[in-house]
Design goal:
This protein is of the alpha+beta class. It is built from 9 helices and 19 strands.
Length: about 450
Amino acid sequence: MSDPRQRASEAQTLLADLIAAARKAGAESADAIYHESRSLSAGVRLGQPEDVESSESRDLGLRVLVGRRQACVSTTDFTPAAQRDLVERAVSMARAAPEDAYCGLPDADQMATQPVDLDLFDGVELEMPQLLERAKAAEAAALAVPGITNSEGGSAGRSFGLSVYANTLGFNGAGWSGSHSISAAAIAGKDTGMERDWDYEAKTHFDELPDPAQIGRKAGERAVKRLNPRKLDSGAMPIVFDPRVATSLVGHLASAVNGAAVARGTSFLKDKLGQVVFAPGIRIVDDPLRRRGFRSRWFDMEGVARQTRDIIEDGRLTTWFLDCATARQLKMTSTGHASRGMSSPPSPSPTNIYLTPGKQSPAELMADIKEGVYVTELIGMGVNGITGDYSRGAAGFLIRDGKLAEPVSEITIAGNLKEMFMHLTPASDLEFRFGTDAPTIRVDGMTVAGR
């Protein structure tokens, strides 16, 4: 493909012209976004190609403001006529829209001014034959694990994305990123005694990906370990969350501190700003400036400068995720967390959020547990964002006398997130693998519903 910097420059010129046209048509202020993406993926099952996909897209979005009225429109048609129509429709719709006391662009002094190279694209674009070979290698390694009887397939992919944002305050910034991925899912056992498991890895840089065979072997070994699960008696016991599912607890916090939920009064933490909501020593960070992070960007989708923030500091809740509208509603200042769809106004969302590691290894974290559950899979979405009540189906392994024992399944783990957060202890094994990350987590005092 052509140089991403050249593509970004062309898109920035396009948005500058679009905004100028909107001002000329009667908009008092305006902002615009451009996004293009391209991806290629290959899936195989039992050694044969099964799911081969290639996609490319380009989208253009425009928001115009007339007084306290706003309208958002978008198009995938980049002809001059379509762009003129986009501007005319946006201004006409804004004039007819109801007033919104909180809409509007940021203050000029909030604009990001210093671009940061976050090294998000390595320029490597594997072609389909290479992706197919990688997918086959992952699946073959899974099938070679003793006890594996079938496969749900292996897959490999790569993608590229370019996002540009500009507004009438003079901001015009671009960010591009790429990713590479590999995955495998395997089935062990037969008839009614089958179990499945998987492994997946993605990185912004190809040279950081593990070997496909490593992914396949791990998927196969995980599936075999889950064979012949038992059920548990109901009762209260410690729960240890594997990092694959521990990230969900950080995700529940992110939802609870989203400014939109707080402004609506639909968050169980809505009255907890500045208060202790985790045990002392717990720290949760949102880092939009992490080098090679999946959600890294030096500006948000309102042009506001981003910065690394401790959302939880020594157990205390320090801030909400805010865009300009929710900040005005809460009489606060944007935290640079605005995200944006093509046809909708901004809304807040986290960037690279993670729970910092503790001092104990996972083995040390479990050492004093006489009986508990090590959870590797969560099922369902039984979380009430208003009350914090938590109830989810789960599977994993029994913890007996501090050691992992036989597999367990068909259980439900329950509690309340406010209590769970206060009784949460992280292990030392944090790895940055996704946009939301956590080490192994222990939560005491949860309820297990079994047979």
